Amino acid sequence: MKKIAFPVALILAFAGLPLLIKSNYLLGILIIIGLYAIIVIGLGILMGYAGQVSFGHAAFFGIGGYTVAVLTTACHWPSIAALIAALILPGLVAAIIGGPTLKLKELYLALATLAFGILVHILFNELKGITGGPSGLTGIPYFTVGGLVFDRDIRFYYLVWSAVLLVSLGVNNLIHSRVGRAMRAVRESEHASESVGIDTAALKLQAFVFSAVLAGLAGGLYAFYVTFISPSPFGFHTSVQFVLMAVVGGLGTFWGPLLGAGLVVALGEALRWATPLVIPGAGGEYQIIFFGAILMLVMIVKPGGLGAVMDLFKKSEEGEAH
Amino acid sequence: MLLEIKSLTKHFGGVAAVKDVSFTVGEGEIFALIGPNGAGKTTVFNMITGMLAPDAGAMVFMGKPLAGVKPHRIAAMGLTRTFQNLQLFGKMSALENVMAGAHLKGKTGFLKSLVRWPGSTAENNRIERHSLQLLEEVGLRDQAGMYASALPFGQQRLLEIARSMASNPRLVLLDEPAAGLNSAETKALAEYLKRLRGRGKSMVLVEHDMETVMEVADRIMVLNFGESICEGTPEMIRADPLVIKAYLGEDEQIA
Amino acid sequence: MDLSSQLLQLLFSGLTLGSIYSLIALALVATYNITGVLNLAQGEFVALGALLAASIYAAGLPLAAAFLVSVALIAALGALIERSVIYPARESSALTLIIITVGLSISLRGLALLVWGTEPVSLPAFSSGGPLLLGGAFVNPQTLWILGMAAATTSGLYIFFELTYTGKAVRACVINRTAALLIGINPGTISLLAFAGSGAIGAAAGIFITPVTLATYDMGFMLGVKGFVAAAIGGMHNIRGAVLGGFILGILEVYSAGLISSGLKDAVALIVLLAALMLRPEGLLAISGRKV
User: Fold this and answer.
1) pLDDT above 80 (res B119)
2) Phi and psi of B4, rounded to 5°?
3) What's the whole-number mean pLDDT along residues C158-178?
4) To which H or E segment does residue B15 belong?
5) Domain extents for chain C?
6) Can you tell me the distance from the alpha carbon of B98 to that of B80, in angstroms, rounded to the nearest whole number?
7) Is the distance from CB of B30 to CB of B217 less than 8 angstroms?
8) Cα-flanking dihedrals φ and ψ of residue B117, to 5°?
9) What is the pLDDT of residue C176?
10) How far is CA A246 from the centre of its chain?
11) Do residues C31 and C194 lie in contact, with contact meaning Cβ atoms separated by under 8 Å?
């Protein structure tokens, strides 16, 4: 009972939050945190369990977004079909990139995703016929399913956080399943995992594809939320921000992604407000100094991240279970 | 024959680590590889399990060649191993270690795991019961919930053996299973290995503890500087003057 | 101008770009093989070296002095970075280290933005005088400076690795860390040396190209990526391959720039990198040979 009390309380708190928050600005931030959390959950599995990193997840996020944008505006697909396509396309692309590079021992996936991320960002800008170039695409309809139109922030808040909940539940199932056990085994010893019949390369590929699918989901929802799309949110810095969120929150922890996404978004907002006070005329680009410094600091000082602290509570409960 | 090794050879930077080694292992047999440190025993294991590519020679398991087959596929063919330098999943419980060892006994894939597909829980429970039984057999039932890294060294050895048995392999390669065990644990281990043989399991054993080797092995091969210098029953090995000179005598001195 | 001299003209441009890519790739591959760190911040050394030299020159120092001071300072920065961020994490996984260098990269870029702003800065050409006519093509004298510097650096490193005791020690360290320790070589010192050297090489490359391309705070990012492309063409473990890869990429870029839109020019390098990593991770050239 104790085990589920905390999550249930948290779900209720999230459900009740919009009743307290009347500011659309804050609600918007919470929606963005939710979207990022979905991406970071996937990235956390890739980093925490497969021991690989992606510096191109903003591209999968973007591919999801553009898939929805193009399919709903140019092709007039129903929104649910467009969203499903936004899951499938990034997953396919990830399978193509990850297949060959994940078979290798070295961190070639990091380089490949770095190159892929920049390439996709260039293509978003240059393939004007499809993406609308730097000015992007407008007129994406609201997400509609069975007559329910998600046309207001509060509705979208519930949509996004329901997705976060579903993804979290799925990942929780995964970690405690046969596949999750194998993933944790791979993290502990690749040699031993292979020796008991675990296909480590396939497992890493599944983790990578899954993380890309989640980024695509977030991208698709993002497009429905802001209803227009342009290349700027999908550059290299966004990819690094996702990595930052994953490590700040803590890899291989359940609460890490939520914490990481929340903290980094909050920090970004705070810096956007505070930086001009210190450096007159400074724009948001200065926050990358802080993000870079924090990223280094966390990796050097506390590679477990903050989620490791949160999991201490969980550990004591698990201790009773055994 | 379950396993046939023919003229296996491996060089490391010009030095022959394993030279023209041939042996066979039959059903329900315990075959021991002995020899001084650096004789190439672990290198033989690494080649059989696909972790190292041999320079020359043939390896056939249950009629199928092993060359070029990925390690996890070799495990799926029914051939598993333990490691001399212990490769446990440290931050997983003893039970989870064995359950991960039983990976091949399950079928639930990525998508079914995400949605906790009906049947996956039953499968998990089945694997858990099977794993608990294996822990029972090696005397670690009470340690099931402990982190593998928190167990004493001797128990870690036993846990690795239990893990290597979890997928019901036909043949297990045991790399110094008695190293670090006290004499009571060593005796229990020997009994366990004989019990496993009684159930039709085959084993290749690399071991320095001569008493255990002489007690459990059906046949023994002595390696020295990567070459086989003698092969036969424990009685034959004991009587061979070459072996006494190259290995047993030296071992006495070391001990 | 006829076709052949036009092609020659492009070849000179390609070699100029290629020299810079080669130097960056060389520093990347050397650092990777010596320390195991894939330094994604290598390009920032190039940018900082160029920006710093421009400021020193603007402050009134002669060009040669600006070059030397900037190279020395960036080498010191490389050493400082090695001690402050890489060394404390040396026991960490490759995953941790690569993330650290990404953090480093964006921090350095942010700092450059803070100090130099977004406006490009420039340096004068190293020698005065108009373009030279060479085989029907006009060659900017700065091109010769760049080619000369690349040749000098590459052969200097060759002599260092092949003929000097320290150079041999570094190679011993690459082959076997324990062996290096046994013969009294401290891998920590070698790692420090690698980062200082990468800083110096990066800064020199940045300063030499600035009279041609100008310098901006964010120039290092794509240059670093191009360095990786060159290194991947050579296979990440081969310095000679990396140098050759740099020239191949430079020439490829220049010739393809005419065929496709300039906005997609960078895409060529990225596609080459993806292809190299996915199809031939041992290197598109797959030159057999020693690591260093």
Assistant:
1) yes
2) -125, 120
3) 73
4) strand B15-25
5) 26-120+186-217, 220-292
6) 13
7) yes
8) -50, 140
9) 64
10) 9
11) yes
**What is the CB-side half-sphere exposure of residue A129 using CA atoms within 13 A?**
0
Domain that holds residue A63: 2-321
* Cβ contacts of A290 on chain C, cutoff 8 Å: 110
- Does A108 contact chain C (CB < 8 Å)? yes
Confidence of residue C175 (pLDDT cuts 50, 70, 90): low
Cα B165 to the chain's mean position, in Å?
9
A309 pLDDT tier (thresholds 50, 70, 90): low
DSSP for residue A141 = P
Place of tokens 């070699």: C15
The structure's pTM equals 0.87
What is the count of structural domains for chain A? 1
Find the CATH number of the domain harbouring A20.
Answer: 1.10.3470
- Tell me the DSSP string of B68-112: T--HHHHHHTTEEE--TT----TTSBHHHHHHHHTGGG----HHH
**A267: exposed, middle or buried (C-beta count within 10 Å: 0-12, 13-18, 19+)?**
middle
The B residues from 77 to 136 touching A (CB cutoff 8 Å) are 80-81, 83, 87-93, 96, 99-104, 106, 108-110, 113-116, 120, 123-124, 127
Neighbours of B45 (CB within 10 A): 22
Task: Report whether pLDDT(B57) > 80.
Answer: yes
CB distance from A240 to chain C under 8 Å? yes
* Long-range Cβ contacts of B17-20 (<8 Å, 24+ apart): B17/B43, B17/B226, B18/B43, B18/B44, B18/B47, B18/B54, B18/B223, B18/B226, B19/B225, B19/B226, B19/B227, B20/B57, B20/B227, B20/B228
Q: Are C277 and A111 in contact (CB under 8 A)?
A: yes
Q: Which of B72, B90, B100 sits opposite A181 (nearest CB)?
A: B100
Predicted complex ipTM = 0.88
